[in-house]
């Protein structure tokens, strides 16, 4: 509450980040997304990108006769992200600013009218513009500290907030090929992301989909997640990193 009172006077990116981190966000960043926004969203040129880290993946690892499968679906984290978005939206509105909350990806089935706008804006754009991560060869947002093991949400706004001076405009995967080599479907191209090329998928989506379908027949869920597990970025923050390296060897 003290922080909410402080925000009434000093409404800055620094204060908002502090507020959201105290409420449980792992990462908070601000990006200028004015370039390339769809016409419907051009009045909201600032993206506030939020992420919450995943717990250690051991509990979500399923061992099958054909190798491990990893479920990266965390309903509790998505609910928490939505709560953070609600607090943020109410704060922005109380200062008279417009905003639109883009929910976590698992909520894309939302049937409200506003949900039709969600596909116009990917979280990847917000997070890369906010300097929180790049798009890895595995097609996922990769953060230097947590790798791809984060869930993301975005709030777009017209509040005049200070934005990141160091957005990511290209990938930092370099010579790493861990996800390329681990993917059982051979769906990942060994190709670095470059923002100017647009959000061109470097993944063979059909091959990935076929793999998910095979897994669904085996374990009842269309999950795979090996390209998340394999990523060495942020593994220092995983207690079970050594075990995972053994699993994926
Ligand atoms: S989810 Fe599995 S099949 Fe799809 S790209 Fe990642 S490793 Fe490959
Ligand atoms: S495994 Fe390596 S190549 Fe793949 S996303 Fe992570 S850092 Fe990039």
Automatic annotation (TrEMBL):
Keywords from the UniProt entry: Iron, Iron-sulfur, Metal-binding
Domain 4Fe-4S ferredoxin-type per the UniProt entry, residue ranges: 165-194
Metal-binding recorded as keyword: yes
PROSITE patterns linked to this entry: 4FE4S_FER_1 (PS00198), 4FE4S_FER_2 (PS51379)
InterPro entries recorded: 4Fe4S_Fe-S-bd, 4Fe4S_Fe_S_CS
Organism annotation: Desulfofundulus thermosubterraneus DSM 16057
Pfam (any one): Fer4_7
Protein name: Epoxyqueuosine reductase QueG (Queuosine biosynthesis)
Molecular function (Gene Ontology), one example: iron-sulfur cluster binding
Taxonomic placement: Bacteria, Bacillati, Bacillota, Clostridia, Eubacteriales
């Amino acid at each position: 509450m003290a922080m909410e009172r402080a925000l009434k006077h000093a409404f800055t990116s620094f204060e908002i980040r502090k507020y959201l981190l105290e409420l449980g966000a792992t990462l908070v960043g601000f990006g200028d997304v004015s370039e390339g926004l769809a016409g419907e969203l051009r009045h909201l040129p600032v993206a506030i990108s939020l992420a919450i880290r995943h717990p250690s993946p051991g509990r979500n690892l399923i061992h099958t006769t054909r190798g491990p499968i990893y479920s990266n679906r965390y309903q509790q984290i998505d609910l928490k992200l939505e709560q953070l978005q609600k607090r943020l939206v109410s704060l922005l509105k109380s200062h008279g600013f417009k905003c639109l909350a883009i929910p976590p990806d698992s909520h894309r089935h939302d049937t409200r009218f506003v949900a039709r706008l969600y596909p116009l804006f990917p979280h990847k754009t917000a997070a890369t513009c906010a300097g929180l991560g790049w798009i890895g060869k595995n097609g996922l947002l990769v953060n230097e500290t947590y790798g791809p093991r984060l869930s993301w949400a975005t709030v777009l706004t017209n509040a005049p907030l200070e934005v990141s001076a160091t957005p990511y405009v290209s990938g930092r995967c370099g010579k790493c090929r861990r996800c390329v080599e681990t993917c059982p479907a051979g769906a990942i191209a060994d190709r670095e992301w470059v923002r100017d090329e647009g959000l061109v998928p470097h993944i063979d989506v059909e091959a990935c989909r076929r793999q998910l379908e095979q897994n669904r027949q085996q374990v009842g869920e269309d999950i795979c997640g090996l390209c998340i597990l394999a990523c060495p970025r942020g593994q220092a923050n995983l207690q079970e990193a050594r075990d995972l390296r053994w699993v994926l060897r």
